[in-house]
Structures are given as structure tokens and as C-alpha cells.
Amino acid sequence: MLRSFLLIALAFCLFHLSARAQLSGKTYAETKREQANAQYNKNYIEGTKYNRNTPSRSSGKVDDEAARALAEKFRHNAGKGPAAAPKVEAPKPTAEQLELQKQEADRKQREDYQRAQAAYQRQQSKQEREAARKAARVEYFTEMKAIGLTEGEAWCFAINAIPTDADRDAEWNWNVRKKLSALKDAYTRFTAARATGTYVELAALAETFKIAGYSYLKAQQFLATRFPEKTAETERAQLVGLFYFYSGTFERHPIYTEAQYANRTPAQVAELEALFLELYTRHPEAALQSCATAEGMSPVHSLYSKAKEKGDRDAQLRLAELGFRIPERGYKWKDACREFPHHLTNLTGYLEGKPAAYWIEVGKAQGRDAATVIADRGDQLIEIEKAVVKGGKPQIDADIDEVFLERWMPSLQKLAAAGDPSGLNALGVLSFGGKIRRSGRKEAIAYWQQAAAAGYYPAHLNLLRYTAAGLKDAPDKTTVMQEFLAYTSQATPQQLYKIARALVDGSQGDQEQELKELGKVLGQGAAAKGVQEAKEYYKFK
């Protein structure tokens, strides 16, 4: 009975498995292989998910072997990854080591505290000094205001007497305080003696406080009323007061006066603009000199800006012509005055039609050569006065291009035709650089010799460079040097200083060192003749 039951059960199982294989279309062996593969893939995925550096899909035999090995490792470790390496405990520090660590931490803490405390004390000290400085300025301002100076002047002198800049040297501070003490005394004495003093006495006192621009100007107007015979002198002195009001000093150890203009009132500005226009009609040169201030501020600038805002073209043109004549003085001159030549240059054909006399007159007013004025009308300085030799080849300013030549060559030719030495020298430079004709060295020498004979030192320097380089067709070197030394022997000390600076700062190319040494000797000669700038210029030492 039992045997029959077992046979029936076995037959049923075989029938069931055969049916499943027939239904799936797979044999028993294929089904078992598929199940084995599914289990392998499960183990593979379980293994690789802990290591993202292993490919999740095999891409070659090496990858397959690595994946199988990793999967096998994870399969035997229940998917928990490889067993961790046993921990090695670090030895516990000794009592001595712990004490040293504590001492080091305490030292660092003390140093940090000391640094923080020192920084705090420095800040406190700085604040205390600044508070004391402000209090001293207020006191000084009150004293200056009490003697009758304007608020702008009093504040200007207070910040000069008690400067914020701690780097200003002791000598400078001493000189400033000495000048301000003399100014205060002179203004007080002038006020006391104005009704009884003589013109000479009062004018001398006023000269001492001239840096108080507006008050000095008013003092000169008083003198003009009391001494009408001195009107011309007092009017020129009023322009000096206007100069200081608008910021400008160029003295050694100067008292900067820009704070006077910064604290101006509208009424003061309107008064001084009208006064400038009036005095310009009688003293044009002195009026333009008063506009050459250290900070580049002047009544011409403010009047031009107002005319521009109103759209008054006629007034703009008149004021641009005035501004174009402001003398070159100080490093801020070019930036301060560039708007005036810009205005005139942008008027099509306006400057191109001017005669040689116009450029000569503008150059005289600016204190520059006429040819330089033509070449430098704004953003770009073209060195029209200099030629150099490098590697035996002539070179001139690369900015002298066809556009420049087409527009400004006729003006330079007008200057040369009028006998102006800067124009002759400029044509020599252009000839030397092949801008007039391809090879113009002989013409260059002729132009430079004419300009040098007229006493134009840049032409002498161009001849020196030419002969020093030993170029073909160059004049005799000894003769050129003798003529140059004869010229310098007749030059004023200030002219000698300018020539020396041109050689020391402007020499380039072949024989550069030789020419710089010559400039150094001339600079020392200018210093010996009392030129302060030459004494102080480091390249002459």
C-alpha cells in the first residue's frame, strides 16, 4: 500500500515538472541555470554597491573576475563588506607629556590675549589722538576766525597746523607752523594799522598773509581805495589772492589752500569770476597765471562749465581760448586743462586755419614751444621735438602717423616759414624719420642747424644724438659739441637745468649713457648756480 502511494507521488512530481518545462518552453537544466544566474546577479549587486569604484556592469574579463571575487566575499559575509582591520589603540600620553601640552596651550592663549590687548590699546590710542587733534583744530579755527579771516581760511589753516597725516616730517610741520604764526601776526597788525599805515608798510604786511586768498584780495582792494595811485599794483596783487583762493601753491613746504575753495560760498565764487574777467582785460598775463593752480581749479574752469550747461557756444569758445592759454605748471595741468584744447580741436577747421602767430602766442602763454602746442592738444603727447638713434636707425615718435601729418603738417610748415625755431626743429624731426621724404637726413641736419642757431636747445640735442651715433652724413662731432657747450655757457641757470633734465631723462638709444653723463654734469652746474630743483634732483647727485 505504502509502496503504491510513493510511486503515485513520484509520478505526479515528474508530471508537474515536465508540464512547467513544456509551458515555459525551457528544459529543466535551462531553468536551473537561470535560477543560478539570478542568484549570482543578486550577490554581484549586493557586493558592488559597497564599492562604487567597481563597475556595476562587467566590461571585460578582468572586470568580471574582480566582480565575482567581490561578490563572493560579500556573499560569504552576509553583505556586510570585508571584515574591519583590528583597531590599534594609541598609547596614552604620559603625565609629563600632558603637562607640556597644557603649558603650550596656555602660552598660545597668553600670546593671543596680548596681541588682542595691544591691538585694542593701539586703537584706543589712535582714537584719543584723533579726538585731541579735532579739539586742537577747533581751537585753532576759533583763533583764526577771531582775527577776521573767513571760515574757509580759518579751517584751511587749522588742518594745515594740525595735520592728519602723521608721515609729514618734522621740518615740514615746523615750517608750516612758523608761516601760520607769521600770517596771524601780520593780519592782526594790518587790521590795526590799516587807517594810519603807509602803503609800503601795509603792502609788506599783506604779502605775509597772501595765502589767505580772499582776505588778501580784500586787503588789496582796500589799499587800492586808500592809495589810488597804486591801483595797477593792487590789481595784480588781487590776482595773487585769487590764485590762492582757487587752491594753488607751489612753494617748498607749502601750506595747501584747496580747503579755501572747497569751503567757498556761491557769493564768493560769483564775485571772483566777475573780478577775473575784469582784471583780465587789463592784466591778461597775470590773470592767466592766477589760473595755473596746484589742483587745477580756476575761474575759467567754473565759467566754462556754466557756459556749457547753458549751451552758450560763443561763451564756450571765448573761455576755451582763455583756458587754452593757462600756463603749464604742475603735474595736474594736463588733466585740468585738457577740455579746452579738446573743444577747439573738435571745431572742424578752426585750429587748422590759424596762422603761425596764433601758435606762437599760445605757446608763449603756456610756457611751451609753439610746435609742442600743436602736437599736444589733449590726451596724447606726441614728442615732435625729439629724434633718437637705436641700432644705427633713426626713430621718432610712433604716434606721428598719416592722420596727424595730414591735419597738422601745414601748421608746422607755417611755423617753420615764419622762422619759429620749434617749427624748424619739428620739420627736422619729421625729415629724419622719413615722414617728408623717404631719406631726409640732410634736410634734417639743415633744419636743426637753423633752429640751433636761433637758440633752440632741443635742436642742439638732436644734433648731439645724430653725431654721437656716428651716422653717415652726420656733421663733425667736435664742432657740434663745441657749439652746444658755447650755447650752454650763455644759458641761464634755469635753462641749464631744463637742458640737463632733457639729457638725463630723455636720452635713449645709441650712446644713451654718454649723453646722460653729459646731462648730469650740466645738472650739477645748475645746482652750483643756485637752482634748488637741481640741488634736490637725485639723478644729478
From TrEMBL:
The lineage of its organism: Bacteria, Pseudomonadati, Bacteroidota, Chitinophagia, Chitinophagales. This is Sel1 repeat family protein. Keywords: Signal. Residues 1-21 form the signal peptide. Residues 99-114 have a biased composition (Basic and acidic residues). InterPro entries: TPR-like_helical_dom_sf (IPR011990). Residues 76-128 are annotated as: Disordered. Residues 79-96, 115-124 have a biased composition (Low complexity).
